[in-house]
Write a structure and sequence with these properties.
Layout lengths: L1 H10 L5 E7 L10 H10 L4 H11 L2 E3 L2 E2 L2 E2 L3 E3 L10 H8 L10 E6 L2 E8 L5 H16 L10 E6 L13 E2 L2 E2 L1 E7 L19 H8 L2
Parallel strand pairs: 8-11
Antiparallel strand pairs: 1-7, 1-8, 2-5, 3-4, 6-7, 9-10
Helix pairs in contact: 2-3
Length: about 210
């Protein structure tokens, strides 16, 4: 969907470009607040007994560490969803279901804890995209999710045929500048840059190069 949304905008001939923000969360599953999740599930229309069961499943969970014959004292957890549990990706998706784009020119695409903000820029107006990222940062704070700005990367796809110097507004989250991992342009399709972490939502290099031929 990321690739389709990006290429559709580039094909629209509106003289625009696309900014993609690949979000990285710190211990995403471990930061779920069970009581807040239960409230969101009720708002989604799940029946009360099921919500109560999920809340009970996620709270007062004993955890120990075992190394060889030695076992630590138990620690009771009241946040997060167990790593490796088949329910965890689903519960996280439900927990973040209300994280949606405010502006029509932006799209927030999620797959479990992988998140991409797609900003379709026209007429060099990046205001909606920058505000969307600021909104996302505030949403994360309100929902106890930790953005890892160091591992969060941005990709810019700009195929405009122009001799003018291309400039893009710097992107900051919580006072830290987001690293721009790569920029795809009409005259630069093989630049060596820091690779983006995510694989599920990454743009296909072959698709970008095919687009560049037209």
């Amino acid at each position: 969907m990321v690739l389709h949304t990006t290429l559709s905008h580039l094909d629209s001939r509106k003289g625009g470009y696309v900014r993609l923000l690949f979000i990285d969360y710190s211990s995403a599953f471990n930061t779920i607040v069970p009581t807040r999740l239960a409230g969101k599930l009720i708002e989604l229309g799940l029946n009360t007994p099921l919500c109560a069961w999920i809340l009970d499943f996620l709270t007062d969970r004993p955890q120990v560490v075992r190394v060889g014959r030695h076992t630590s004292n138990p620690l009771t957890l009241n946040t997060g969803s167990p790593q490796g549990c088949v329910l965890s990706p689903l519960l996280y998706s439900l927990y973040t279901h209300d994280c949606v784009a405010r502006f029509s020119s932006n799209t927030i695409i999620k797959f479990a804890d992988d998140t991409v903000v797609v900003g379709l820029i026209s007429n060099n107006d990046e205001k909606a995209y920058l505000e969307e990222v600021a909104d996302l940062s505030l949403w994360c704070q309100d929902n106890s999710l930790l953005l890892n700005v160091t591992k969060t990367k941005e990709l810019i796809v700009d195929f405009r045929r122009t001799q003018q110097q291309r400039t893009y507004s710097p992107l900051e989250i919580n006072g830290n500048t987001v690293e721009r991992g790569q920029r795809w342009s009409q005259d630069q399709t093989h630049s060596k840059t820091t690779p983006l972490k995510t694989t599920k939502t990454r743009l296909s290099e072959s698709e970008i190069q095919n687009k560049n031929k037209f």
